[in-house]
Specification:
The protein is built from 13 helices and eight strands. It is of the alpha+beta class. Keywords: Membrane, Transmembrane, Transmembrane helix.
Length: about 280
């Protein structure tokens, strides 16, 4: 059998599970921003498929049988994991997002008896033709798109102190011009979009080759709130949808070829009301 493992697989899986120390995580994120092949590897591991078995193989050295059995027992004890493992075999499987408990169960099953290979091939799809048949769904394996998770992880580092300085009108205008030009969307009205929030600047990021604009605001009651816009390749419109992720409330939607979200620690009703101001 060809060894398709990668020297960074264990580190990538640890990153997806949130187990990397801060310094290693920051270094990996920096590499992902410039290394297309590593970013593609991470995306393929997160989505599952043929690469997942060799990726788990990289964990063998750190996963003795006793530990795996303990992981498996703990994971199966959760309702969500038990529902997945007991679900009848189907061609595709939708899950909320990368879940450490499910990863633990899959890893244990793979290393203890090779069962996960057959199970995953049934749940996810054994070849590219099955993936093509599923293009009408948002995403196989992970329902929340990866960009929303990336925003949540970054925004978790943001505090009111981070947004303490108000940009000058000249700087704000320059940031919004640059973001608008890159994204192809006029964002000049962002400072006045939410009258009760204080505009604190716009930043331009890259997510898997797509420009991602993050516009920061400071809410006097609920703290930092971000309005983010990213190009949506399939151009499909989506209605306002609310979800909880990593302690944040996220309201997201899509229109005119762009996916958008508002994220913060504010109540859902508050963010939904803000979203309706820019979604209409």
């Amino acid at each position: 059998m060809t060894d398709n493992s990668h020297p960074d697989d264990a580190r990538l899986i640890a990153h997806l599970e949130g187990r990397l120390p801060v310094e290693e995580r920051e270094a990996l994120i920096a590499r992902l921003s410039t290394d297309d092949s590593l970013r593609m590897r991470l995306d393929r591991i997160e989505r599952g498929g043929p690469i997942i078995a060799p990726a788990f193989e990289a964990l063998k050295a750190d996963a003795p049988r006793a530990r795996l059995e303990s992981l498996l027992s703990a994971a199966i004890a959760t309702d969500e994991t038990r529902r997945v493992l007991e679900r009848p075999r189907t061609r595709t499987l939708r899950m909320p997002r990368w879940q450490p408990g499910l990863v633990a169960a899959a890893t244990a099953l793979f290393l203890l008896g090779g069962v996960v290979g057959a199970a995953l091939s049934g749940w996810i799809g054994s070849d590219n033709s099955e993936m093509a048949d599923s293009q009408d769904s948002e995403m196989l394996v992970r329902a929340p798109e990866g960009w929303r998770q990336a925003v949540a992880e970054y925004w978790s580092l943001t505090t009111a102190d981070t947004l303490a300085l108000v940009p000058t009108p000249e700087r704000a205008a320059a940031e919004l011009r640059a973001a608008s030009a890159k994204l192809g969307v006029d964002l000049a009205g962002a400072p006045e979009a939410f009258p009760n929030l204080s505009f604190r600047g716009a930043q331009l990021f890259d997510f898997q080759g797509r420009p991602l604009v993050q516009i920061a605001y400071l809410d006097p009651v609920h703290g930092p709130i971000a309005y983010c816009v990213i190009a949506k390749p399939d151009k499909a419109d989506l209605p306002l949808t609310t979800e909880e992720m990593d302690g944040f409330t996220i309201v997201h939607w899509a229109s005119n070829g762009q996916a958008r979200l508002l994220i913060g620690r504010a109540p859902a009703e508050h963010l939904q009301a803000l979203a309706r101001k820019v979604a209409s």
